[in-house]
Design brief:
- By secondary structure, the protein is α+β, with helices and mostly antiparallel strands.
- The chain has three helices and four strands, in the order βαββαβα.
- A hairpin with a 2-residue loop joins β2 and β3.
Length: 91
């Protein structure tokens, strides 16, 4: 199964080290291959360094793609994490 979704970053500082770490940790829980795309750059959702290279500020729309048996659940959980500002207070 392949699932794609565009999700806007709503946290104050965008994709900095703490959100990148939280997203990578979440993605690593899934067997699906998960990619995150912004401005023509596609990186693994399981790589903190890759996510940091996106240089995505607040308001950026990320294209999340998951492919595998648990893709639907992975994308739903990623959307929830992003919409909850990565669980970081003050974001």
């Amino acid at each position: 199964m392949r699932v794609e979704k565009e999700i806007a970053l709503i946290n104050k500082y965008g994709m900095h080290v703490r959100p990148a770490g939280a997203l990578a940790r979440l993605c690593q829980k899934y067997m699906s291959e998960i990619t995150v795309e912004h401005s023509g750059i596609t990186v693994s959702g399981k790589s903190v360094l890759g996510l940091m290279t996106l240089e995505a500020p607040c308001g950026t729309v990320l294209k999340i793609t998951a492919e595998g048996d648990d893709a639907e659940r992975a994308v739903a959980d990623i959307e929830s994490l992003i919409n909850n500002r990565f669980g970081i207070a003050g974001e």
